[in-house]
Design goal:
- With 222 residues, this protein is an all-alpha fold.
- 80% of the residues lie in helices and 0% in strands.
- The protein contains 12 helices and no strands.
């Protein structure tokens, strides 16, 4: 947890934890668009409350930016997507070694490609496969011991390219064996373990289809 949160006291720390938990529940458990949007908006409000006390808190900034980005994905809003990208990139510029910021960059680019297709995402939003994959690699390199980073990398890579079985399997194996100190780590470690069955069978198409469902908003009926 950032030092600034500790200095500001338990109330602000609780707000940050709440925003993170709300966003996680919304993007992984929201059964339909309305439920997901309600949870996403609640997470954004909780992050904004943290920022009112700690305007430079990177975790709250990322939660707020991702809330804007996930809403933009569900509503197909270019304006929202670009606003989310600007805020995420601002956090990366301030903290280039923050693995959560790197994962947020990767998610922005690769989710845009998954949602719209590579060419439309590049032309309309400026999304880049190479930028997304490089950010994934940086996140894993920064925190290989926490399950969420290799787990997300495995899921995003096999979703992007069903032929990338060996790389995705290596990442999923690492995630399954990694530490899981947070609820999000534990959730993603379980999802990486689920992905291993088709990956170990060499079935990239099935693994890719499963990854779509296991990644954020994959379960939302639209």
């Amino acid at each position: 947890m950032p030092t600034l949160l500790l200095l500001l006291g338990a109330a602000t720390a609780a707000q940050a934890a709440s925003s993170r938990a709300l966003l996680t529940a919304a993007i992984f458990d929201g059964a339909d668009k309305a439920a997901a949007l309600a949870g996403i908006d609640a997470a954004g409000r909780a992050a904004a409350a943290t920022l009112a006390h700690a305007p430079h808190d990177s975790e709250a900034r990322l939660v707020k930016a991702m809330a804007v980005g996930y809403r933009a994905t569900l509503e197909r809003s270019r304006q929202g997507a670009m606003a989310a990208r600007m805020e995420i990139e601002a956090v990366v510029a301030a903290e280039p070694r923050n693995p959560d910021a790197q994962i947020a960059v990767a998610g922005w680019h690769l989710d845009a490609i998954a949602s719209a297709g590579a060419l439309p995402a590049r032309l309309v939003l400026g999304a880049s496969r190479d930028t997304g994959l490089a950010a994934l690699d940086r996140a894993v390199a920064l925190r290989p011991d926490h399950a969420m980073y290799p787990a997300l990398a495995a899921l995003m890579r096999i979703r992007l390219d069903p032929r990338d079985v060996a790389h995705a399997r290596s990442l999923a194996e690492a995630a399954a064996a990694a530490e899981a100190p947070t609820p999000l780590d534990r959730l993603l470690r379980q999802r990486a373990a689920a992905l291993l069955e088709p990956l170990r069978a060499g079935d990239g198409k099935r693994a890719s289809a499963l990854a779509v469902r296991l990644l954020p908003l994959g379960q939302v009926r639209r």
